[in-house]
Amino acid sequence: MLTTPSSLDQRFGLSRHVVLPGPLRLDGGALLAPVEIAYETYGTLAPDGGNALLICHALTGDHHVASAHPRTGKPGWWQRMVGPGRPIDTDRFFVVCANVLGSCMGSSGPASGDAATGRPYAMAFPVITIRDMVRAQALLLDHLGVARLAAVVGGSMGGMQALSWAATFPDRLDACLVIASTARHTAQNIAFHEVGRQAIMADPNWSGGDYYDGAPPAAGLAVARMAAHITYLSEAGLTEKFGRRLQAREQKSFGFDADFQVESYLRHQGLAFTDRFDANSYLYITRAMDYFDLAEEHGGLLAHAFRAARARFCLVSFDTDWLYPTAESRSIVQALVAARAPASFVELSSPYGHDAFLLDSPELDRVIGGFLGTGA
C-alpha cells in the first residue's frame, strides 16, 4: 500500500495517489488488483471521523475539485463551491474527491499499466460500472479511516454515484445531495454517447485502442467532446452567447472552416479536451453511464434501491437542462417518498442548461449551504 502526495494547494487542498492491494470485484465478474486511486482532500478529519464529505465528479471531471489542475493550470472545477466559508465548508467538513475508476487522471483505467504485460491495459481493461466506481471510493475511504460520511454530493455522473452510494452502502452516509442527474440513461442519452464513441473508434489513430506508443485519436476524441458539449448547454444559452454571428472577417473563410462563432467555440472545446483526457477512458466511462440503471439493479423498482437508506436526500434540477430534465429528478423523489426516505427537491431557473451546476449560481449555493447546514 503506497500513498504519495503529488501537489499541495497553498490554501487548503492536498492531492494524493494511493495504490490499494485489492482485489476489487467488479460487477462484470473480473477482479482488479491493485487498485490505484488519485484523490484530493480539503480540511481536517475530526477525531471521531464524523465530518467526512465525499464529492463525486462528472464524466470529464477529476479530483481537482478546488485546486488548480496540474496540466491546464485552470482553477478547480468547483472551486467556487468548496472552501473555507463556502457552501461546502472546509472549516467544517473533511472533503474528499476521488478520480473515478476508469479515468486517466491517476486512478486505474485503460491507460494504466497492466502488471501482467508491462503495457497499458488499453481495451483489455475490464468493463466497469457506476457501482464499481463507488466500491473503489469505499476502498479509499476505508484507507483514510472514514467509516461513515456526513454527506455524498455529486452532479451529473457524480449524482449517479451519489445515488449508488445510498443504495450500495446505506449505512455509511447521513445525507445525499444529487444535482442535475438521473437514475438511468434514456435512449437519447445513450444515442449521443454512441455518436461520440463511434467518432473515437473511426479515428485511424485509435488502432483498436492500442495507441499509447503513437499518436492518440485526438480528432475522434475532439468530435466526441463537441457532440457531448452541445448536450450540456441550452438553446437559449447558445443563442445569447453566439446567435448566428459570423467570425470576424479576417478570421473567416467560406467553406468548411469555422464561419460561425459557435463552430469556433465547439472546436476549441474539442481540441482543449484532447490535451487532458484519454480516448479509451472516454469509451469506458460513457459506457458505464449508459449501463447505469438503479431500478434494474434492484428488481426493476426504483423505490427498492432506497429501502435500506438511512440518509436524508436533496434533489436539484435546472429548468433548461434537457440532458437530465426535471422529470428525471422528480421520478427519483417519487421513489424516495415511496421508500419513506426523507427527501427535498427544488428546480432552479437558469439559462445555462445542464452545465448550470458548474457555473455561478447563488440559488444553488443557498440550496447546498442550507442542506448541509453551513448557511453559506
From TrEMBL:
InterPro entries: AB_hydrolase_1 (IPR000073), AB_hydrolase_fold (IPR029058), HAT_MetX-like (IPR008220). NCBIfam families: homoserO_Ac_trn (TIGR01392), PRK00175.1 (NF001209). The keyword Calcium does not apply. Its EC number is 2.3.1.31. It catalyses: L-homoserine + acetyl-CoA = O-acetyl-L-homoserine + CoA. Residues 51-359 form the AB hydrolase-1 domain. Pathway: Amino-acid biosynthesis; L-methionine biosynthesis via de novo pathway; O-acetyl-L-homoserine from L-homoserine: step 1/1. Its main location: cytoplasm. GO terms for molecular function: homoserine O-acetyltransferase activity. It comes from the Bacteria. Homodimer. The active site is at 156 (nucleophile), 321, 354. Belongs to the AB hydrolase superfamily. MetX family. It is found in: Cytoplasm. It comes from Sphingomonas citri. Transfers an acetyl group from acetyl-CoA to L-homoserine, forming acetyl-L-homoserine. Gene3D superfamilies: 1.10.1740.110, alpha/beta hydrolase. It is an enzyme of class 2 (transferase). HAMAP family: MetX_acyltransf (MF_00296). This is Homoserine O-acetyltransferase. The keyword Amino-acid biosynthesis applies. Substrate binds at residues 225, 355.
